[in-house]
Amino acid sequence: MKTKIAIACDDLGFETKEALRTYLIEEKNAEIVYDPVKKPEEGVNTFAVLADEMAEVIQRDKCRLGIYICGTGIGFTCQINKHWGIRAAAVTNPYSAKRARLSNNVQVIGLGCRVNGFEYIKQIVDAWYDEPFNFETARENSKKNLLEAEDDDNRLLKKPSYVAWNMGFRPE
User: Fold this and answer.
1) Which of 17, 54, 79, 103 has a 20 to 30 Å separation from 38 between CA atoms?
2) What's the pLDDT band for 1 if we cut at 50, 70, 90?
3) Keywords on this record (predicted)?
4) Which CA distances in Å does 120 have to 70, 73, 111?
């Protein structure tokens, strides 16, 4: 079964996004369900809108993972983290990417094309993509922190009525 994933970029990250898209489809057996930027100029000054759209795609359970590529990956992840149930991290190395997924069940990573070359970006994506969070083997404090994060989201953010899954806060 193919893993469904969202991918987006700004104008700086366009070429890397296109190469990563091909890599995900051909090497990782992914199905891209959201890819709104079809040419570089469509990504200019759009990270906030794209973060809002990607968050909704994930909340509606059209996919459970997302990647954004720009200069650093930071601004996008700041924006998408404002959405109920979304956990995103800008990552610059494979270990941080792996721990983002295994410790925090991060659904979205931000990547910087000005930070890392494409071959290293593939290693980062592999570390995050290849080993999903597993509630049976996860550390107890990771599971407790996810429940605390859900409580925080419920207290601080408005949960949209269209959220179609538990957003990875707990086992299904």
Assistant:
1) 79
2) confident
3) Isomerase, Lactose metabolism
4) 15, 15, 11
Q: What is the pLDDT of residues 104-151, one digit of tens each?
A: 999 999 999 999 999 999 999 999 999 999 999 999 999 999 999 999
| Burial degree of 164 (CB within 10 A; 0-12, 13-18, 19+) | exposed
Q: Let me know: does 163 contact 84? Beta carbons within 8 Å.
A: yes
Task: Please report the domains of the chain, with CATH numbers, ordered by start residue.
Answer: 3-156 (3.40.1400.10)
Answer yes or no: pTM beyond 0.85: yes
Which residues form the catalytic set? 70
C-alpha 103/C-alpha 62 separation (Å) is: 23
Q: Any residues with CB less than 8 A from the CB of 123 and at least 6 apart, and which?
A: 94
- Please check whether residue 27 is in contact with residue 56, taking contact to mean a CB–CB distance below 8 angstroms: no
